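Minutes, project check-in
Item: structure for the 150-residue chain
Input as provided by the requester:
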Amino acid sequence: MERLFSGIDQIVPSPGEGSTRGGLVAITQRYMDFLAAHPGLTKVVAREGSVSSPRLTYLIEHFLREPYQRVLEAVRAAQKAELIAPEIRPELLLFLVSGAWSQLFDVHAFAYETLGVDAYEEQTRHDFLLMIGALLEKGLIRSRPAGQDP
């Protein structure tokens, strides 16, 4: 387990990094790179996280609580800097972004065979980062088509 989780603490080296747009992008990029380098991690967390157990408690206490708290602090810093809307719950945003990316790793073969999406390609990681950035900055559903006056 030590090797699987090694380096997770470097995803958010400083929670204050979330107070800038570039910092949020860098955190997201490091997260994606970390999962690409540790593809088994998402499967372990999904499997162990489905039921409360001593193993889950061990994973949380030894590997996940501190990094997750840093992410939440980074999101709160972004909210304070008015980069993320204050009504967004940081915990749910964390699960939205991490869940979307980890799902791609969890069902890598399915994604590749059905849609041709390869989670391990650099271009896929780049495109995912652009998508998350657009979702965070512009939202998914617009009230008017782009370029149309109100």
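Outcome recorded: The chain has one domain: 2-138.
No further action items on this chain.
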